[in-house]
Amino acid sequence: MPNDLKLQGLAAFIAAVEEGSVSAAARRLGCSKSVVSERLVDLERALGTRLLQRTTRRMSLTADGESFLPRARRILAEAKEAVAELSDRRSSLMGPLRISAPVSFGVLHLGPALYAFLAQHPGIDLSLELDDRFVDAASDGFDAVLRHGPVTDCRLVAKRLATSRRVLVASPAYLAREGRPTSLDELCRRNGILYINRETDWRFAVDGGWRVVHPRASLRVNNGMVMRDAAKAGLGLTLLPTFFVRSELESGALEQVEVGAEAEGAELFLAYPREGVVQAKLAALVDSLKRSFGEPPYWDG
């Protein structure tokens, strides 16, 4: 290996390939575009070959780049693993940790839970990105993602953090105006505030199986707090995890609606790539979050 081959150059190269551009790689690495470009140039100079073919419109790997990419990934992974092992021997957790989580849960519950984790492990440099889109932890550069629901990606390891009941709720004003439904059949004729792109979200346990209900959509949105507030405004019924509506149920701003069947619950997971090299930090994070949320979790208490 050339003496002036730097890990930062390897990280810039891998990020540029996986993100598809220098600009996107810079955002992922948290530095400027010019810094990433400089690191790429330094890496190619150290290797004595061109790794990337860059034009104004696109970027592609050269033949040497194709050959070097898996080795670069292995070198960087082994270096990170070595750092993690040294941290474990010192009984301290250090270094960067990048995670993604849904906006609403991040604001309401994950943020406060992370403060205790960071106070216990001050050497960790945590980056938390809140995003309601589906984040691919295996390719988007995250060490872990928080998921509310099943994790079916075989590339990921999923650690359960907590369970969550889901309840059907509406505002007192809506129920006074439209009446309180008492059966699943009645729900089909009501206005529902729905989670976008999830057509089978309203699932209820019936006779050992599941029945999916399709209410009339008064609003579709991909954010739980907006769904909750729309229900408070009287736009219709909505089905939400208890961690969104506990305070509103206690205050009376929302009322739980019973229809003779229990809604399908959900679980919270922390999922991370199988080939990740920050397992010690993630194990500590999982333990800390479990303690913060409780069993059963405080939002179902």
TrEMBL record:
Organism of origin is Rhodanobacter ginsengisoli
Q: What's the protein name?
A: LysR family transcriptional regulator
Q: Which Pfam families match?
A: HTH_1, LysR_substrate
Q: Which UniProt keywords apply?
A: DNA-binding, Transcription, Transcription regulation
Its family remark reads: Belongs to the LysR transcriptional regulatory family.
Q: Which InterPro entries match?
A: LysR-type_TF_proteobact-type, LysR_HTH_N, LysR_subst-bd, WH-like_DNA-bd_sf, WH_DNA-bd_sf
- The portions of this protein that span the membrane are none
Q: Does Signal appear among the keywords?
A: no
HTH lysR-type domain residues are 5-62
UniProt keyword annotation of Ribonucleoprotein present = no
